Amino acid sequence: MFRSDLVDLVWLSLGVSSAYLLITSLLLMKIQNSKRWAKNGPQVFFLAMFGVFVAFSIRYSLHTFLQSSLPMTFFILNTILVALFYGFLPSLMTIFLSVPLAFFFFVPPFDSFDFPTPQDSFVFISYILIAFIAVGIVEWLQRERYKAILLTRVSDSNFQLLSDASRSLKNALNLIPKDKDPLIKP
Known about the structure:
Helix 4 runs antiparallel to helix 5 (88-106). This protein has helices spanning 2-28, 42-61, 63-66, 73-86, 88-106, 118-175. It is mostly helical.
């Protein structure tokens, strides 16, 4: 009777202290790998350039209808999608490729790099600002999502370690014969 109460007390204290250490370690843990959520390599940049080409093709096919309005809308959509799937750097590349393309082909006078009007400058500055804000928010959200995944994996592995330690301690206590248990007094 006394032996099982002692085992329960040990398990309770072990469980409480381990849970406390686990919770505090998770709260204090800084996950450094959260920046590595996106794929990397040359294929990512190729896909980003392909996205710019697709955005350009769609905007160019609608040029007779849209004329000078919405010069960067399709490019911004592409940039947000690239940021969502491939990360910060490829999306920055799409911004730097899209601005000159949109300025040259879709701002009057078309097919030239003449000085833009103040209204055109405002439109481009606002599009670029919107793109940078959207890319920053998407990157932040993706890092936080990946950080949550990493913390879940760490928590699961810590739970598995605690379960294994608990099982081995129970097995070790079951090997002690009850009649030779030094904790039980006659």
